[in-house]
Amino acid sequence: MKQLVNTSLKKVSEKQRTAVLRLEMDYELAVLFEAIEEKNEKKIQDSKQKLEKIRQELLRLKAF
Questions:
Q1: pLDDT at 64 over 60
Q2: How many whole angstroms separate alpha carbon 56 and alpha carbon 18?
Q3: Which CATH number, 1.10.10, 3.40.50, 1.10.3470, 1.20.58, labels domain 2-61?
Q4: How far apart are CA 4 and CA 2, in angstroms?
Q5: Which of 3, 36, 44, 60 is most enclosed, with most CB atoms within 10 A?
Q6: Angstrom distance (rounded) from CA 29 to CA 44
Q7: Which residues, including other chains, have CB under 8 Å from residue 36's CB and lie 6 or more apart?
Q8: How far apart are CA 33 and CA 27, in angstroms?
Q9: What is the pLDDT of residues 6-59, one digit of tens each?
Q10: Residue among 57, 51, 53, 59 nearest 33 (CA)
């Protein structure tokens, strides 16, 4: 029974984390768009790095 509860809690927390990551991704895409419009290479690279980290975490969460 305890294992079932732990599994359920893990799934809920993963869904919540996935939702947060999607919001972060949307925000970072807006930042990237703005940086591209401004032609700010530093902001573009920073944003791309953040997006890559978000992508990796999303892939990790979906793998389990």
A1: no
A2: 12
A3: 1.20.58
A4: 5
A5: 44
A6: 10
A7: 44
A8: 10
A9: 777 778 888 999 999 999 999 999 999 999 999 999 999 999 999 999 999 999
A10: 51
SS3 39: coil
Alpha helices in the chain (DSSP H): 2-38, 41-63
pLDDT confidence of residue 34: 98
18 near 61, Cβ under 8 Å?
yes
Confidence check: pLDDT of 5 > 70 = no
The per-residue pLDDT for 4 is: 62
> What is the identity of the amino acid at 12?
V
Torsion of CA 11, 17, 23, 26, to 10 degrees: -90
